[in-house]
Amino acid sequence: MTFPDSPIRLHFGPELLYGFVLTLTRVGCTLMCLPLPGFKDAAPMVRAGLVLGITLLLMPLWPAVHVPPLSAGAFAVAALNEVACGLVIGLALAFLNGAFQLAAQTISMQAGFSFASTFDPASQADSTVLQVLSQFATGLLFFALGIHHLILRLIARSLEIYSAGGDVLPQSSLALIVALGTKMFATGLRLGLPVVALLLLIDIALSVLSRLHSQLHVIFITFPVKTALSFAFLAAILVRWPELYGNAAREFFGVLARIGLQ
């Protein structure tokens, strides 16, 4: 076996460097918005290594950017486009998990769970027990249902569709974010309203009973009854959370299809 006499040379030009920096910006902005428990508290070296590793894995899709010398303005505009695209992908997941936290907060206020608070590792503040439980549940479902694979596919797909030199997002990007926020509130209310309606019926029934029998101190059993029924309803609905989370994820990421990321 003979080997060529000429040495192997790797050329790292400015185009490759620009593509690396822009891809790193898009990946970093996407991961920055991930609402996973404990992710923001991880060591900076771990988070930087994760962003760098994903960026290197996407090397075949790095954009070939031809920026003229001393053209700092053009490169800054391209970097801002990358930030916008990364934030839109990350916000889609943030709004998805926010819908379940909104439902948990709505149920907590009506069921009386707001009196019991615990430490929230994500916000570094006291939060309701049900809200923290919802955050951990959505974090587990994020990996169990393979949403992290979908995030990586979306980043790779965005690199194939949108060149770094042009407009990454259309003019309707603001409307897209508003649509994601609207979907978050609608999904959260749909998840929380059944429990709220049940507790409202309990309040009405106990109020009527107290009116008919004034000698009965119904107010002393209101809180235990509402708490017990809330636990029973949550135990029944938590079994369907994986299905509900998967359906909500399809709806949220379906909104991203408006900019061609599907």
Describe the global form.
elongated
* Alpha-beta classification: mainly alpha
Distance between the termini: 48 Å
Binned strand content: under 5%
Helix content: 55-70%
Multimeric organization:
single chain
Strand order in space, largest sheet: 1-2
SS field, number of helical segments: 8
Whole-angstrom Rg: 25 Å
Uncertain spans: none
Biggest sheet record = 2 strands, antiparallel
Give the integer mean of the pLDDT values: 75
The SSE order reads HHHEEHHHHH
SSE topology sketch:
Layout: H1 14-32, H2 44-57, H3 72-111, E1 117-120, E2 125-128, H4 129-144, H5 147-161, H6 173-212, H7 219-237, H8 241-255
Antiparallel strand pairs: 1-2
Explain what you see.
- The two termini are 48 Å apart.
- Helix 1 crosses helix 2 and helix 6 packs antiparallel against helix 8 (241-255).
- This protein is mainly α.
- The longest helix is centred in the middle third of the chain and has 40 residues, at 72-111.
- It has a two-stranded antiparallel sheet with strand order 1-2.
- The protein is built from eight helices and two strands, in the order αααββααααα.
- The model has no long low-confidence stretch (mean pLDDT 75).
- A hairpin with a 4-residue loop joins strand 1 (117-120) and strand 2 (125-128).
